């Protein structure tokens, strides 16, 4: 009994994450795991937001032991393990933001250690929108949970009870419960007199380990269900209910097998209806993901346009595999979608599709410098007159300024502008949507295509640097 008391006393330390994860013991011996929400105005009980499905259940105070009630009422909210603030940097480009530790900076690139990898991430200096910013960051912005443990373990004494207990609590706070188990076992080995105390902590930790495995298995089942892999999903659901029957996740999903079997049957009998429900959102999500991918800086404009021309084909192929359906079935379901209006614009890249000037100079105007003399004679050192050679006619100077090519525009555009441009291109050229193309005057030249200018004192008309002479922006509305 005392072992369970220790388990309850330490369970908050084991499960602390951003929202104070906890395990509550009921009078009947069952455990509930989730985020505890206590409202002092509610005298009857409290809420537990389950960590498996996100659903919330109400627990009456009469359903838990008095000692457990006291623990919950007197516990302090924990926002996870305490992490140090360290000196870091932020690098911002048109397509990404990198936050972490500055490893090295030179004329060509900045190397930043982030939480996503042990090796530093390179950021070209040419891509920076502004100089690298020095800021204070949390350790977790620069190190993964495993690296955070390694940093503390390097300073810890694995033969010291208190040190290993603290390491265990820290690992549990990061939800690395199996790693926490190792540290608790080392703590018990370091001080045999604490055996009963640690056994209680280990018992609570095992609950969290098993609950975590059950939750991961449930996520896998849900993914298979979304992919209409019903036979595999049902097989794993049976495993969940058999091997993790004592977990809260399994108890809250006791009808999962029956639910999946019914959905599988409905999918066969009412496939068209199910596809009509699933396909539209999945189609839009995949389309958006592909447009984001094609707008990436690793693609040239010509490559991105080629891929957009085949985008619908790629989406249908993806949904075929996901939903085990034919292209005709996918297209029929897509045709039944609710047709909500979307607007896409080529923006200041409209000139590319409107026939604007692709590179070259913005004007053909020239300036011819005046000659300083016309070959008159001069007196030499001996008093004689010598005819001076006439100067060569001055060469005209071109007054035009370079306009970017379409590929240069694409390379310098932001990720958002590239994606918007590609969405407009998709909407305009796709056979899978209804569309209407509209135009509006360029906001720089007011639809004239040229601007009045004076260069080196020479009045001239120059192509608008925004619309390249195309005069208009193109906007596509589609359904």
List the helices and strands and how they pair.
Blueprint: H1 2-15, E1 21-25, E2 31-37, E3 45-50, E4 56-60, H2 66-74, E5 85-92, E6 97-105, E7 109-113, E8 121-124, E9 133-138, H3 139-142, H4 145-153, H5 161-173, H6 177-190, H7 195-226, H8 230-243, H9 248-251, H10 256-269, H11 271-294, H12 301-309, H13 311-323, H14 327-335, E10 342-345, H15 351-354, E11 366-367, E12 377-379, E13 385-387, E14 397-398, H16 406-412, H17 415-429, E15 435-441, E16 450-455, E17 458-463, E18 472-478
Antiparallel strand pairs: 1-2, 2-3, 3-4, 5-6, 5-9, 6-7, 7-8, 10-18, 11-14, 12-13, 15-18, 16-17
Helix pairs in contact: 1-7, 5-6, 6-7, 7-8, 8-10, 10-11, 11-13, 11-14, 12-17
What is the residue-mean pLDDT, rounded to a whole number?
87
User: Which runs of at least 5 residues are low in confidence (pLDDT < 50)?
Assistant: 1-20
Strand content: 15-25%
Query: Strand tally, please?
Result: 18
Radius of gyration: 35 Å
**CA-based shape:** flat
Label the structural class: alpha+beta
Number of discrete helical segments: 17
The termini sit apart by 65 Å
Describe the structure.
It contains 17 helices and 18 strands. A 5-stranded antiparallel sheet has the order 8-7-6-5-9. The chain is flat and about 120 Å long. α5 (161-173) runs antiparallel to α6 (177-190), α10 (256-269) crosses α11 (271-294) and α12 packs parallel to α17. Helix content is 43%, strand content 20%. The longest helix is centred in the middle third of the chain and has 32 residues, at 195-226. β2 and β3 (45-50) form a beta hairpin. Among the domains are: 1-81 and 146-264, no CATH class; 85-145, SH3 type barrels (Roll), CATH 2.30.30; 271-336. With 479 residues, it is an alpha+beta fold. It has helices at 2-15, 66-74, 139-142, 145-153, 161-173, 177-190, 195-226, 230-243, 248-251, 256-269, 271-294, 301-309, 311-323, 327-335, 351-354, 406-412, 415-429, and strands at 21-25, 31-37, 45-50, 56-60, 85-92, 97-105, 109-113, 121-124, 133-138, 342-345, 366-367, 377-379, 385-387, 397-398, 435-441, 450-455, 458-463, 472-478. Mean pLDDT is 87; it is low at 1-20.
């Amino acid at each position: 009994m005392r072992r369970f008391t220790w388990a309850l006393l330490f369970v908050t330390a084991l499960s602390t994450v951003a929202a104070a994860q906890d395990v509550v013991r009921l009078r009947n011996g069952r455990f509930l795991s989730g985020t505890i929400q206590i409202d002092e105005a509610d005298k009857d009980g409290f809420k537990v937001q389950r960590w498996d499905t996100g659903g919330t259940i109400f627990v009456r105070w009469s359903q838990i032991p008095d000692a457990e009630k006291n623990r919950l009422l007197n516990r302090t909210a924990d926002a996870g393990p305490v992490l140090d603030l360290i000196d870091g940097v932020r690098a911002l480009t048109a397509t990404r933001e990198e936050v972490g530790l500055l490893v090295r900076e030179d004329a060509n690139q900045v190397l930043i250690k982030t939480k996503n990898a042990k090796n530093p991430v390179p950021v070209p200096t040419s891509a920076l929108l502004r100089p690298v910013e020095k800021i204070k960051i949390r350790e977790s912005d620069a190190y993964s949970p495993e690296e955070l443990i390694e940093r503390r373990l390097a300073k810890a004494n694995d033969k010291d009870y208190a040190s290993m207990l603290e390491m265990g609590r820290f690992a549990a706070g990061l939800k690395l419960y199996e790693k926490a188990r190792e540290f608790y076992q080392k703590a018990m080995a370091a001080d045999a007199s604490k055996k009963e105390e640690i056994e209680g902590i280990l018992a609570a930790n095992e609950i969290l380990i098993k609950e975590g495995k059950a939750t991961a298995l449930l996520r896998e089942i849900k993914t298979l269900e979304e992919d209409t892999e019903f036979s595999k999903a049902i097989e794993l659901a049976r495993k969940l209910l058999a091997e993790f029957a004592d977990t809260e996740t399994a108890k809250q999903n006791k009808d999962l097998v029956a639910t999946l079997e019914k959905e599988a049957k409905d999918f066969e009998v009412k496939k068209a209806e199910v596809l009509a429900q699933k396909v539209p959102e999945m189609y839009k999500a995949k389309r958006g993901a592909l447009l984001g991918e094609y707008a990436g800086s690793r693609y040239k404009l010509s490559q991105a346009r080629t891929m957009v021309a085949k985008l619908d084909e790629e989406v249908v192929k993806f949904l075929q595999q996901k939903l085990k359906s034919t292209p005709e079935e996918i297209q029929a379901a897509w045709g039944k979608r609710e047709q909500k209006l979307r607007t896409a614009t080529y923006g200041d890249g409209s000139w590319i599709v409107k026939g604007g000037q692709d590179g070259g100079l913005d004007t053909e105007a020239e300036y011819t410098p005046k000659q300083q003399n016309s070959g008159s004679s001069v007196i030499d050192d001996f008093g004689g007159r010598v005819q001076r050679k006439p100067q060569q006619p001055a060469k005209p100077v071109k007054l035009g300024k370079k306009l970017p090519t379409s590929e240069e525009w694409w390379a310098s555009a932001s990720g958002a502008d590239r994606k918007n441009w590609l969405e407009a291109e998709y909407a305009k050229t796709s056979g899978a949507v209804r569309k209407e193309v509209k135009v509006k005057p360029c906001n720089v030249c007011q639809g004239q295509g040229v601007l009045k200018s004076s260069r080196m004192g020479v009045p001239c008309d120059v192509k608008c640097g925004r619309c390249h002479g195309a005069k208009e922006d193109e906007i596509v509305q589609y359904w």
